Amino acid sequence: MRLPLALIANVRLLNSGLRIRHSIHNGVLKTSLLSSHNICSRAERKWIKPAGFDTGVKTYNSLTKQKEPLVLAQERIATWYSCGPTVYDHAHLGHACSYVRFDILQRILSRIFEINVIHVMVITDIDDKIIQRSLEQNISPTVLARMHEEEFKRDMQALRVLPPAVYMRVTDNIPQIVAFIKRIIGNGHAYVTSQGNVYFDTQSIGNRYGKLVNLGGIVGELGAQDKRDPRDFALWKASKPHEPHWESPWGQGRPGWHIECSTIASSVFGSQLDIHSGGIDLAFPHHENEIAQSEAYHQCEQWGNYFLHSGHLHLKGSVEKMSKSLKNYVTIKGRYISDECLRCSANHNALGQLANQSRLHLSEGGTL
């Protein structure tokens, strides 16, 4: 899905020193220019309370591990980015709980506190899992991704989750991703290997790496042999035989996992984001790496002001989260659980559960 023209214009303004003001009037997204208030000096890992409009709301912020006053950069406007699905399989009830929880929060902000929530969600439609599943099913990765993307949207509609202002696919934003990586390299925070891979250089940002998660030692992505540091992560992956690929200055390849969110969020909201949301399992490495590469791109000390994470859904009696990879999931359109049942249960539970990111348990009878 392509962006509305008003949002596409933001891509051209990333380096202009101007910010974009978003508002919704009668359901129409509007934009106007504001002068920039971005802070662009090097800093430590400490969270900085934003300056701006104090909503009177307090929210649990994963960056500080405590409740903080919700202060927005613009009066009564909340810029909100969320990680959407990787569309290689059916969405399950664990996904549903997360999206319903954040839907409730957005409704509270908009309907009770009269805040315009400008919500952008990414659809990850190119990924190792998508490629692997397409090979197993002998279909195109694009066909597989589109099929499950549309199914996800129907599931959200059945749950009465409000759609974002715009869904953005990774494959529709490859040129922007390439440009984003080039700037990170130019800023001295990434390097190209002889194999055509591009990695983020975690040593280049010192102790700023680890804002969300106390790493407690060396942690890194497995499988790569051409990195300088085990913690370094892929921005661009050199193509392999029979995989989808795009042209880049480093050769044919495709984006790494984390770079898509930084690029897309920045292309819409610029160098400052009010709220970023997702499941708690995304805090590391995904959100941690998003923060690192976004602040390296913008050369600022704080890109996202509030990170909100929802807890896992567990089958009753199980210590494992509901997960597609663990094959212990129940699909949203499962026969014995109606959307009315899930919505009712989630509304009763989500507000109390979200603040401390605790778990929800699903019994065999289908109740939460």
TrEMBL record:
Cleavable signal peptide: none
Cofactor: Zn(2+)
Keywords: Aminoacyl-tRNA synthetase, ATP-binding, Ligase, Metal-binding, Nucleotide-binding, Protein biosynthesis, Zinc
GO cellular component: cytoplasm
Domain tRNA synthetases class I catalytic: 74-333
UniProt cross-references to InterPro entries, sorted A to Z: Cys-tRNA-ligase, Cys-tRNA/MSH_ligase, Rossmann-like_a/b/a_fold, tRNA-synt_1_cat_dom
BP GO annotations: cysteinyl-tRNA aminoacylation
A single GO molecular function term of this UniProt record: cysteine-tRNA ligase activity
Transmembrane segments: none
EC number of the protein: 6.1.1.16
Enzyme class label: ligase
NCBIfam families: cysS
Entry's family note: Belongs to the class-I aminoacyl-tRNA synthetase family.
Listed name of the protein: cysteine--tRNA ligase
Source organism per UniProt: Sinocyclocheilus anshuiensis
